[in-house]
Amino acid sequence: MANSYAILIAVLLFPGGLFALALGLTLKGADRRVAARLQGRVGPPLTQPFFDIVKLGFKRTMVPDTASETVFLAAPLVGTASMLLAVALIPIAGVYNPDPQIGNLLVLLYLLAIPGVALMIAGSASGSPYGAIGFSREMALMLAYEGPIVLVVIAVALRTGLAEGHFPTFSLAEIVHYQQAHGAFVLDPVMWPAAAAFAFFYPANLGIVPFDIPEAETEVLEGPLLEYSGPALALFKIMSALKAVVVLSLGVALFMPLPLTGGVGLAAWVGQQLVLVLIGVTAVRVSRGRMRIDQAFVFFLKWPLLLSAASLAVAAYYTAGGAL
Amino acid sequence: MNFLSLFARNLRRGPYTEPFPFGPPSPTPKRLRGRIAFDAATCEGCLLCEKLCPSGAIKFTRTPEGMTFDCWHPTCVFCGTCEFYCPTKAIHQTNDWHLAHFQSEKFGMTEHGLIPNLVCADCGGKGLNTVPNTAKVRPPLSAEEVVQLRARCPKCRNKFLKSRGKKP
Amino acid sequence: MTVLARLKNLAARSPWLYRINAGSCNGCDVELATTALIPRYDVERLGIQYCGSPRHADIVLITGPLTKHVLEAATRIYAEIPDPKVTVAVGVCPISGGIYRESYAVCAPIDQYFPVDVNIPGCPPRPPAIIEGVAKALEIWRQRL
Ligand code: SF4
Ligand code: SF4
Ligand code: SF4
């Protein structure tokens, strides 16, 4: 029983739920503020995403006549719930270890796909042509980026598992412990292709320029989100904030956990995420234009796939060779 | 790597943003065509501006007190035609752009002026206290004569000018 | 202050703008784009975001004299915007008809069809004037929440 309370706390308070939400929104605020600075503007206050969420809470939710109401309103709930669970699945080096009962890396991969699916369902349920275009774009993009990320995860699992002398491990806690003991994977040339492939994955998953094609505001009027208003839209905003935390902390856990504990560890973890956002999201977002969906599709089937396949091969060869 | 140097410059230099609306706006260009200002004391009453205004923003009305001028800013397109053709520049455009207003103030957004009536110094009849049109009068009128001319009704102004022409 | 009032104060700092072009000559729209995009007039300071969908909008900016042709579409889009909302007429066209006043082809002034709250005269109004008008609209938006 105590165990289930711990899980509940992990999902709703820390590191999931409130903590992750606050972190995600602050990251978004920092992103917007720094983007404004890079463009020579003042930018919104750091807490602007919080204001947006509160504001949306005061608005009315409208359901279009052409939409199927239940699906339309359930989609954001499903997406947000999946992300709440996903945050609780990722360990914070030296601070938090997820209960192995909730799931492992493979479950996390499935959960990561759910927001995309929720967006697709939302887009098609809204009955709007723009939503439908967003739906097809989201699907194409997902098909393109899901392959590489699976290979990346397998490469990391293989590397850790074989180095520890057993079968590939899909326990994130174990991966993090291994790196804390033997040095982070970003410093290990064998894992560089995997890290690079992951770097391509995360703007695509978070829907950030240059891969914000499904939600392109200027082309398809925010695609699947077009018909959403009020609290339902707020849920989608919350979902994407949580997703940012999930993907970033997954990256941190897979490639760069620090051998720290306690408050310092937590602060360092937050700092890592902030740095990742500012370099990987803000700078890219401000300096690049949006790709076309066909360009992005070909791009993902070329570079990240190649990189991740290479990383898998290298990791397997190196670790197996080293173990032999 | 052009964008990196841009980033560095923007970060170093700080934002370009004006403080407005939190602070005072930056200086407005002098020749900005903004709010209309009307000076009843120098108007000739020729009604050119009313005729030429493309959006019909200007309206002169005869009232018991004289002739009123009204320019309704919510329909003025700030083209400057009125000022361009006004012989005395009694109507001119200021560079004031603070025109945004609540809906309740919509019909108060006017520039108002009154050209008062006068009693003719010669015949005692009614006239308008407008500036006399002296551009084509030869030889040019002295300042004193202009004041005398102005104190008369249109008919007596004509008489005044004719009698002046015969004098020399 | 109650919690609700406090939340409303927070919410008032996040107005999202949506533009309806009701047959404008594009002059006003260019100025709106300028206001939105140029660092000099950074509207994001006020928490403002331009949004692509009427369903996300809080403050509606209407430009143009509402031509007969666009009347039905504009009314439909206006109805799509969830309450509470604030309506702003940008340029003299929507306020009175401006240069197109009394034309057979326009339905101006738009306050016959939409409950306008703030007017920003100008043909087109300059960006600081638009910001001033939006700041006025924010006052109304705060009360209306
Ligand atoms: S500026 Fe143009 S529109 Fe305005 S009052 Fe003068 S002539 Fe009329
Ligand atoms: S304002 Fe100028 S143009 Fe208009 S009536 Fe007076 S003198 Fe004539
Ligand atoms: S107010 Fe002037 S600039 Fe704006 S739409 Fe009308 S005519 Fe064009």
Would you give the CATH topology of chain B?
Answer: Alpha-Beta Plaits
Number of domains of chain B: 1
Give the overall silhouette of chain C: globular
CATH class of chain C: Alpha Beta
* End-to-end Cα distance of chain B: 84 Å
Instruction: Tell how many strands the DSSP assignment of chain C holds.
Output: 5
List keywords for this structure.
heterotrimer, A: 324 residues, mainly alpha, 0% strand, globular, B: 168 residues, alpha+beta, Alpha-Beta Plaits, four-stranded antiparallel beta sheet, two-stranded antiparallel ribbon, 7 strands, 26% helix, elongated, binds iron/sulfur cluster
Task: Walk me through this protein's architecture.
The complex is a heterotrimer of chains A (324), B (168) and C (145). With 324 residues, chain A is an all-alpha fold. Chain A has one domain (2-321). Chain A contains 12 helices and no strands. The longest helix of chain A is centred in the middle third of the chain and has 35 residues, at 129-163. By secondary structure, chain B is α+β, with helices and mostly antiparallel strands. Chain B has one domain: Alpha-Beta Plaits (2-Layer Sandwich). Helices cover 26% and strands 20% of the residues of chain B. Chain B has 5 helices and 7 strands, in the order H-E-H-E-E-H-E-E-E-E-H-H. The longest helix of chain B has 13 residues, at 154-166. The mean pLDDT of chain B is 85. Chain C is α/β, with parallel strands linked by helices. Chain C has one domain: Rossmann fold (3-Layer(aba) Sandwich), CATH 3.40.50. Chain C is built from 5 helices and 5 strands; from the N terminus they run αβαββαβαβα. Chain C has helices spanning 3-11, 27-37, 68-80, 92-96, 127-144, and strands at 16-21, 49-50, 59-63, 86-90, 118-120. A 5-stranded parallel sheet of chain C has the order 2-1-3-4-5, with helices on both faces. In chain C, helix 2 links the parallel strand 1 (16-21) and strand 2 (49-50). The longest helix of chain C has 18 residues, at 127-144. Chain C is globular. Chain C starts with a helix and ends with a helix. The model of chain C has no long low-confidence stretch (mean pLDDT 85). Strand 5 of chain B pairs antiparallel with strand 5 of chain C. One iron/sulfur cluster binds next to helix 2 and helix 4 of chain C.
